[in-house]
Amino acid sequence: MPAPTRRRRWLTICASTASAGLLAIPASAAPGGDSSPFGVRALAQLAAGHEQSVGAMSPKVAEDDDDGNEADEIAEGADQYAEARTSPGIVAPGAYGAAWAALTDLPRTKGSWRSVTNLPYNSDDPRYRDIDSNSSGGSGNVTGRTAAMAADDAGYVYAGSAGGGVWRSRSGGGHWKPISDRLSSQSTGALALDGTGRLWLGTGEASTNADAYLGSGVYVLSDPHHGTFSSRSRVGGDELESTTIHELRFGGGKVWAATSEGVWSHSTKKLSGAWKLEFAPNPDYLPGGSKADDPDAAYKNIANDIAIDPKDPSKVVLAVGWRSGDDYNGFYTRDAKASHGTWTRITSGFGDLPTDADDVGNVTFARSADGSRYYAIDQSPEQLNTNPDSGLEGIYVSKSGSPKGPWTKIADYKGLAADNSALTTPGYMPGVQAWYNQFLTVDPVNAEHVYAGLEEVYETQDGGGTWSTVGPYWNFTFPCWSIDPAKQTGDCNQTTHSDQHGVAIGRYHGKSFVYVGNDGGVYRRPVDGAQDSSGHATDWTSLNDGTIDTLQYYSVGVGKDLDHGGVSVTGGLQDNGQSILRSNDKVMGSNFGGDGGDTLTDPANGCNIAEEYVYLSIQVTQNCAVNDGSWATDASKATSYNVAPADNATGEARFIAPLAADAKNSSTWIAGGRHVWVQTHGYAIRSGDEWKSVYDLGAGHTATAVAASGGKVYAAWCGPCNNQGFARGISVGNADGTGWHDITLPATGADGTVPNRYLSGFAIDPRNADHVYLTVSGFSRQWTEGPGAGVGHVFESRDGGTTWKDISANLPDVPADSAVVTPSGGLAVATDLGVVHRAPGHTKWQRVGSLPAVAVLQLKPSPDGRTLYAATHGRGIYRIPVRDVD
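Below the sequence we write its predicted structure tokens.
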């Protein structure tokens, strides 16, 4: 069978935005200008999307209302997750820590959450090989993004997830247990084992993508085989709170931390006492500095890694710089004899490794165990801004073993592409996301045996003389691939998931393994593993056995399973498509690929599903997207349909745009971009032309939330959406296009009124469409230094949105993401740190259960209203009986 041109997964590209001290500096996916981002898609189309973005990168905040150019569309996707939590200004450090303390002090409802998705999730499930699935790509079982790895020689493996905490395996991978649930931050930046066997955790993911959270500092476990992290295991004071940590390195009795606020060090012997700021290139931009409120402050002190000379730990090289470029980017060192001397930039004597600021971006170091070699990966801001093919400057070796070089280049993107990479299309080649994807490690017993991670996994056994793509991006581009549902991926071997972040080498039962962490979780293979004639590994094993559930959901949908009884549960995920779990399943399948956004599921039939991709791209199926792949030779056999409204083609929608069904009529859908769109054919819709624009929110405005009941529609919007002139509003009207008007909201968010912050969701009383609740993201003015930040997170209107009352009461000051009215009239609210509930007739809030500190982005009821489902962005989907909440 000939391979169809492929594929639908839209890979992230770089754009910069000032996140202002709350979230990791975000980046995101390609713009929404493609009128058909679903369906049969070649890598050339992906490359074209990336090529359009070249030259659009800047460390400045993009204005949402300047001229609607391509850079703004890219920034829109990059900004969304951060904007919702930072606008209209700068958020002070410590906001999440204070919110977590307040949340844990709330009284609790009875009942406990039960995990729904704690079972294997097979991205290659042969049942779902419809036109927009990535099944047969070769990633196998997946879970959420893994940011860091550590492993020892006793079979213990540690995986640090992006938003779901740290997990431990005692059996060389698999049978995982969470070990950081008591911490106030579940975002991992770095994991490292020191020479005594202690496990160090740096919180705050530093991959600079769109949905990464800041951390609460560095923690250490003296007995990682048995212990768990707690607040008492934090190293030092609060100096590293609200930072991201890219790497932890050891030398000279110190642990060094490369953070978003410079390079810090601390004694490894005495764990109390403050961290020492070793170097910050622009200290005025640090918290407390004269320029701390500058919109660019989050970019001005980014450190990526530390290289310590194994022969003389007083010799240290710092890799410092913002991936999109800044004057301070470069490598820094100081006189070895002057322990308190001045750090100076290296400008010469480095060999091939660049020292010019334009060519030093995100950098990762690795040294050999015998001290004879140092290796480095360098991403170039200049390449990122000008080269549509790749942002990779190169991979380098210092054969002196000193981080001061001289360095020799041993790989570039063209050479890696020629080594049987899956990324050979101009415009999308190895290192195109080197600002986001990087790892590097050296075989402990062979200084010339190196593993490097970018979008793919590469291996050299001769110090960089030759390379093999042992973990290709996917198998779709290779002759061995087949969509045959009788096989996982045709005659190809399993590969890893794409987008590499963490790596470790350890031993289990006397055999050495390399462990890699990426956007699909954790994989391993023998360090000296086998390869086929193309250099692709034949022995990757997915370790995502279902016991490690770090899936990052944006949404959840629940409908009756008419074939098996019970319910079908589905949801959209960061970089792991759409999962589907039917009532008789022991393994979840993936029926749509790519980034999954919002979800609609027919309560009466769980196989009627609408899945949003990005920028309001919507795909619909009426058979759960069950398909044996026969569409590949007969297009009429596809059972998924692209039904995106027109705002997708123009890019006038948020990266994850709002989508809702009328609570009284599941055939009426509302979608929000610049316009409020309505279609009345339900899941029988087959074309984007069936949408009707019922209201124009205005140029530069884009919907952040929509809801409808009985034909009455509420739409919230922002524009500009970042902290440069942030504005928000609410529009109300009818699904038939009549009665539309804008609600008057005070521009400054006066006390008791709706704040001038991101409006995240509506919940309509099913008994009265004029009775509606509004959730508000971000932090109130105690933490947000922005105009009109106001106070409050939950508001109520009894007159169709004309007037609003703050009902936040004792609700912690934490971003609120969505809400659901329960059958009894209670109100459940999803926040960035869990779920809260207000019982009918009461004014005070209670905490629902005891989820770890993970963002809950959406709540949905079961078809009978008896169960509440929560989509978390880092710990999968949970459910709880409504009777235990009300």
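DSSP finds six helices and 60 strands in the chain.
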